[in-house]
Predict the structure of Glycosyltransferase family 4 protein.
Amino acid sequence: MKILVVCSDFPYPADHGARVDTWGRVMALAELGWKVHLLVCGKHMPSEADMRAVYAFVDDIKLCERKNRLTDVLSVVPMQVRSRSELRRVDVDEDYDYVLLEGDYVYPVLDNPRLDRVDAILRVHNDEAAYFKALARSARSVLHKLYYRMESVKFAWLWKKMLKRIAHYLFISSKEFESFRKRNPRANSLFLPPPVTKAEFGTSGFQRKNVVFIGSLFMPNNREAIEWYLEHIHPSMLEDPGYRFIVAGNSRKTSLSWLEPYDLTRVVVHDTPESLDDIYESGYVFVNPMRNGAGVKLKTIEAIQNGLPVVSTSIGCEGTGLIDNEHILVADQPKEFRRSIKQLFDDPLRARALLESSQRYIRKHYDHKAALQAFIHAMPASSSIEAGAVNGQG
């Protein structure tokens, strides 16, 4: 079995959600004995050390440059997709059983003449139309809002085209999977949860009352979540003398001045830390106060694997399958959100039980390798489905 995995970003090091998911899948495919080739069209070229690490699992790596042009704004194709048009011209010199698209952004690879007869599988990281619409709600700048809204409309158009060309779908979100399956019962689709990245899960000592948030600090929806927490939750939490709020994530060298209007007493910010291990180990509870978003918030799953119980909004745990009061605590209003954190502070045994329940759920339901193996092995040897079959026109 030979598969070409096409990515919009080099998947290693796995230092944020999409990379965690993609890199885990690359390793799973290799461990299952499949020959994996990697094709990446992104902004940043990997270092030699990162390339060597990936070559331990793949047989070949091809890189092509992502090209942004201002005129792409006028295209009906989303800019994130248009900028990866070079995928159409990459010299693909081998035959593959499947091509796995890691997200909508790499759709142009299907126009590569060497891949026109290869079965395509799409990893659905997000409902991109919904995701960009959510980013528009979170953005402050009028120009950014306009850009995100335009991309949302364009991704909705692109999705209709993809349905006619792709027959196999792997959804990271159980919610989006169920919605898709109802609308497209003839498509070969599966809920494939993100891979478990740790052989052994962590466990908080529940000693220091550190509330932790980890997420990309340049993303408007994460920024909105942190601001909501600082405005509505943090001030009253300061009544507990042991409490601290720990924020960590990659800023991509953007300014963090948006934090300055808030009371930052006992707020610790780690901008682009080399490792998150110490931050997780120092935590008592992880919070995911996201107000807007789509797909699965991998930060919630990562926090559980790293030993922290989670208090989240409904958006923050959407698509994970985790159940309120059984695996995590869910609260959308400030009063309930504060009460949930304080409940865990006041009852370490409850915090530990919640964590253990969520970790059992992930071990049982997030067997990425087994689900991926069954999905591909169940596909016909030649599953060329005529255009239109997915949306009921075949």
The chain has a mean pLDDT of 90. The chain is about 35% helix and 15% strand.
